[in-house]
């Protein structure tokens, strides 16, 4: 790839990035994303403005899934009365491969960086269409610990070209 940025995740925006591919290997997680934004302060961005890149490959090394949470929700009636509440749910470790497989069709809506003693800790909020009704989504939080992150992309493009 023409551009490569190492350990600069804070100089990207992954909000509204569509996951094209997600590969899990021992101690490695690789996202292929469309719609990522390279911020102007990124060492590989000499354009002095935030720029989209066509396809971005984000490779996390020595990664550990600290936790996966399926976000709960609340249903209200038209008068604002709570009808039903579904709490957040920790996904059991043995179900992680199925959740990662579902996330291959998802969209990252936000990321949150956490502070850790060494390495990096990031939470990826991902909306995934439900199989029975693609208009409905399940929201998962992938809480990841990793030693390094490499982002690679081929070119910059305008927002209209980002997909």
List keywords for this structure.
54% strand, mainly beta, 163 residues, 4-stranded antiparallel sheet
Overview of the structural elements:
With 163 residues, the protein is mainly beta. The chain has one helix spanning 96-103; strands at 3-6, 12-13, 17-25, 28-34, 37-38, 51-53, 55-61, 64-70, 73-76, 82-86, 89-90, 107-114, 120-129, 137-146, 148-153, 156-157. It is built from one helix and 16 strands. It has a ten-stranded antiparallel sheet, with helices on one face. A four-stranded antiparallel sheet has the order 2-5-6-16, with no helix packed on it. The longest helix is centred in the middle third of the chain and has 8 residues, at 96-103. The mean pLDDT is 93.
Instruction: Enumerate the spans where pLDDT stays under 50 for 5 or more consecutive residues.
Output: none
Would you count the extended β strands for me?
16
What's the alpha carbon Rg, rounded to whole Å?
Answer: 17 Å
What class do helices, strands and sheet pairing give?
mainly beta
Order of helices and strands: EEEEEEEEEEEHEEEEE
Number of helices: 1
The description of the largest β-sheet is: 10 strands, antiparallel
Helix content: under 10%
What form results from the Cα inertia axes?
globular
Q: Measure the end-to-end span.
A: 18 Å
**Overall residue-averaged pLDDT value:** 93
Walk across the major sheet and give the strand order.
Answer: 1-15-7-4-3-12-13-14-8-11
**β-sheet strand percentage:** over 45%
């Amino acid at each position: 790839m023409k551009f490569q940025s190492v350990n600069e995740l804070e100089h990207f925006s992954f909000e509204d990035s569509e996951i094209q591919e997600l590969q899990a290997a021992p101690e490695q997680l690789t996202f292929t994303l469309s719609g990522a934004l390279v911020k102007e302060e990124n060492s590989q961005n000499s354009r002095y403005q935030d720029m989209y890149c066509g396809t971005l490959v984000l490779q996390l090394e020595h990664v550990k899934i600290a936790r996966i949470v399926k976000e709960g929700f609340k249903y209200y009636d038209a008068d604002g009365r709570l009808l039903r509440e579904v709490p957040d749910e920790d996904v059991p470790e043995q179900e992680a491969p199925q959740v990662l497989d579902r996330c291959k069709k998802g969209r990252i809506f936000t990321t949150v960086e956490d502070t850790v003693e060494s390495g990096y800790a990031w939470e990826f909020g991902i909306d995934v269409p439900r199989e029975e009704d693609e208009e409905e989504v399940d929201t998962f939080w992938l809480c990841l610990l990793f030693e390094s992150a490499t982002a690679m992309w081929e070119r910059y493009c305008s927002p209209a070209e980002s997909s």
